[in-house]
Each structure stands twice: as C-alpha cells, then as structure tokens.
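New here. Your pick:
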Amino acid sequence: MKRLSHLLPFLPILLLMSGCQTEQQQTQDEPPAGMVAASAVTEIPVMDATDIAMADFEAGLYAMDVGRFNDANDLFRAAAEKDPDFGSAYLYIANTANSLEEYKTAMDRAVAAKDEMSDGEKILVDINMTGFTNDVDESLRLAERLVELYPASPRAWLNLGFTLGGLNRHEEARTAMGKSVELDPTFIAGHSALAGSYLFNDPKDFALAEVHTNHAIDLAPQEAGPHIAMGDLRRAQQDLIGCRESYRRATEVDPTSAVAFSKSGHPNSFLGYYDEARSDFDRASALAEGGGKATWMNFKAYVHVYEGNSTAAIEELGTVLESIDAMGIPEDEINGAKVFVLSNIATIAMHEGMVEIATKAVEKRNELVKKNAEIVGTEEFTRSQKANIAAWNGMGAATAGDYEAARAAAGEYATLVETQNNPRKMEFYHAVLGWTALQEGNHQMAVEEYRQSNLNNIYNKYMLAVALEGAGFTEQATKLFTEVAEFNFNSVGYALVRNAAIKKVEKVAA
C-alpha cells in the first residue's frame, strides 16, 4: 500500500477497508516531490529531540516529500529508535505506514507523547485519530485550525488541501495547495499535489497539471517521481507511447524504483503488449518491499482481463493468494495483501456472473476484514468495518439474484454509517443499490442510484453509462463511455470495462 504524503489516516484505512487499490490511488498517493530539504520550508514546530534523531527525522521528511515512502518510514523509525520519546517520529511512521497494524501502533505512541508536543503536532495527531471514526468534519475543522496557527507553513496549507480534496471540494483544495507553493515556490510536494488534482479530479486541467509537473522536474530531475508524473499526464492526454518514454526515464533515474517499472506495465496492458506488461510487473514485484511484492502481481493478473480471459485472471490471482505467506512480506502486511487479492477475485467474478466464485471470495475477504476491527479495537472503527462487510455482502447477493438480501445488506450498511460525520458516507450504499437495480434490469433506478455513488470510481462511472444507455439516454451514456475509454489508469474495475467502453464509442462513431 502506498501513502498520501502529509494526509493522514483516511487513505490507508479506507484502502484496508475496501481492499480495492487502484493505480490512480497509487499515483495520487505518490506525488513526485523534489530536492528541497525540510529545513528550507517553514515547518510546523516539532518537539525537542536529540540532534541525531532530528537529523533522521528531517531526512525522513525530505524522503516523504520526494515520494520515497519506504525510505521515509525507515528514517522515521531510526529517529524513534534514537529518541524513543520523539512523538512526531511516531506520527510520521504512521503517515508512511504499510499496514493498519503499523499505523495503529505508531499512533498509540504519538498519542502517548502529546503532552510534550507543540500545538501544531497535537493537531496533526488529532487529525490522524479522526480517521478511526471517519469524522471528516472534525478533520476539516482541525486542518483549518492548523492553518490559522501556522499561516506561513506550506505543509499546513497542503494538509488542508488534501483534506478538502478528500471531500471532493477540489476548487477549494487547489486554492489551499496553491497557497503552499505561493509561500515556497520550491515546495515540490505542493506542486505535485496540484498536478495530481488537475490531472485526476473534475474539473480537470491538463495544461495546469503540466505546469506543476514541469516545476517538479525542474526542481528534482534526479528523482523518479516527477518523470512518473509526466508519464501519467501523457497517458491522460492519450499519448500511451509518450508516457512509456517518461516511465523509462524514471527507471534510468532510479533503477530501484518498483513504481517506475510498474508504470510501464499499465500502458503496455492497454496497448496489447501483454508479454512486455507481464515483464514490467515481474520486475516491479522483484524490486518492491513488503506488500508491494504481492500488489504488482495483482496488476500482472489483470493482463489476462485485458486479453479477454477473466477465468485465467482469477486462477492467477488464486495462485498469488496462496503464495503470499511465502513472499517474505512482514506479518502485519499479509492481511491487507490477502484482502486486496480476494477483493479483485470477487470483483471479477461478480462482473462475469461467476456466482459461486464471487460468493466464496467475498466470504473469505470479509473474514479478513474483521481482523482490522480487532487491531484498532474501537466501537466506531468496528462499525465502519462491519459496514464495509455489509456492502460487499450486498454486491454479492445482487450478483446471485437475491435482490431482497442485497437491499437488506445496503440497509444494514446505511444504519452502521449513520453516525459518521462524513458527507460521502452513503456513496457505497448507492453503488450497491445501483448494482442491484442493474441486475434486476431496472435501468432508471440504476441511474438514480449510481448518480449518487462515487463517480471517481471508474467502474461506477461505466455502470452509470450502462444504466443510462438502458434507460434510453444515449447521448449521456456515450459521453460517459468516452470518458471511461480515455481514462487510461489501471484497476481491476478498469480492466473489466475498458475494452467494452472503447467498443461502445466506436459503435457510435461508426
């Protein structure tokens, strides 16, 4: 699992809850940052620590800002080992964590050190802790308070931008991110965040994404991240050949970057260069640390889906699942790796109507998700995990044709998230009901439900297009099919629908 620089617990926790990791998330989680030492940025005050621990901590901030999260995690751990009372070291161990267990353990140590922290550090700890309750209203209030206390801190403004972005308030998010680079034009993490926002979030603006990506390249040409970001931009601009050149440049800059090698696998999958794609993902897996070894094997299995052979993809994913225990992955990352594989198997099987396979995968997945609740141990987080399980049960029931059970599971989900202070909490609920309506052949109802789901999820967007087409709204459907066809960022959902979307568009054009 990759982390979102400076953003706090929501992404790691939500990914563990859903088990569905997309390449788009990985792209946004790894903003290419630059060669700007932490001391060059007006930082939120950090509690006193020994000089040697502080040196590791500042080096960790730099590594995090340039998108090298595993290196950053190692450095923050080194800082904590040299000064076991250094609360911010634990805070940032959490922010670069590879598992929920690592995250929770680090946050427990950070909370224990709060009395010795600066006001800013205390706020950052409190923001992280809201992730366990999914209280985004409180997270936003705290992020705004951080900016009030430290109006000259680019990192505080960037944190606010990420929080607003998580609420789909992208224009406001860009204003906050823009403030971070206005305060320090060399703060590459801010440029990276802006580039990612303009690239992935509506309203998109590829020209502005390119401006900020070029800033990152100019400031850090020796880092892989900016070149990866340029490759992502070229993909979004439908230049699949050009993007491979940028990714190749990234591998030259950093031959140890698993992400850089994996990136070439995505356009190769889309272009039909299947052997090359598999080779890219094999190389990425070999270079990866921890759970990343399994992550890229999932993307390798997607190649079968692009080839039109979902059965082979499920078989390969089954092999990956069986081999995870022997991959040398840290014990605390194994559960998340297995949830990811089982979620992919279930998604493919549901899409293809393989009811028995889908049912078994959902059952196994949900049993593992229950362990997340045990790790955190709070009532609120346990409810969120139960809600996630209910939603997946609803999707599986609808696939099996048990629409009454599907709606009941959706209702259970709604009840479990009722107390969450999160305006987006019902998106999964509407996705379940939209899928259920599609299985029943009720296209109008599916349209109504999918419009209220998370349409940043490309699979949901495709299903809305299917529903619109079935309900007779051909022009609206074609617009969405075109957006899906031109998306070009990898996930199990995209693997399942990309070729179909392209055929829909070509049929209209003919």
In short: The two ends are 42 Å apart (CA to CA).
